[in-house]
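Quick log. Single chain, no ligands specified.
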Amino acid sequence: MRSAQELNSLALKTRRVWGEDAYSPVDIFAVVNGWKDKKITVVKYPLSSRISGMCTKEAEDLVICINAATSYGRQRFTLAHELYHILYEENIQRVICDMSMDYDKPVSEKEADMFAGYLLMPYDALFRYSDQVKSWDLNHVIDAEQFFQISHMAMLFRLERDGFISSQTAAALKDVTVSKEAARLGYGKELYMPLPAGRQYFTTGEYIRKVELLAESGRISNGKREEFLMDAFRADIVYNLDEEEGNLND
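-> predicted structure:
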């Protein structure tokens, strides 16, 4: 198994490729969608409650599917987790990842979890942040997860693993309605909530670029373009729809 130091190093290497520093929060969906050196397609789709996501790798075509019924924080973690499989594991074609963060997971899943945590919140970033924290009570835990935009469970996992809190404290801090507590501290609930059911189907990245390129070059008809985009749940492109407001643009 790769050590924590190796996985943190890989996470920092990935951030450097993206032009990101080692301390700041990262908008991982925006970065991956715009990472044109890698042909990555991201599909959000409601999956079984036991599955956080999956990925497939066929030559240069990389597809990551994320369980859209999970919270936004969990979706960010899942994307980082799946990146490990497709970037740093050899001879994989398809990986299905479950929701647990148990210590009994297969080695590759443990590595992917640790990499995801370091990608979203590098080792030095957490230690620098911790210098401002006198005691890791619930309020400070929520402040940190809001700053780094990671899920409550992922935050507690890292704090326990890096020795900031005990297993007993982690267990006690899990037993809260975190969205309610975050709201009490002045934060929104978006990090802890899934998208509304009607917006849980969405594709971004390489697939969309390929469809548009084929249409622009005349290799597919406009009707086929629209068919491919609808298959990818992108009616907003087909009908020039403002997805946020549900209106047609002029």
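Strands lie at 39-45, 51-58, 61-67, 94-98, 202-205, 241-242, 247-248.
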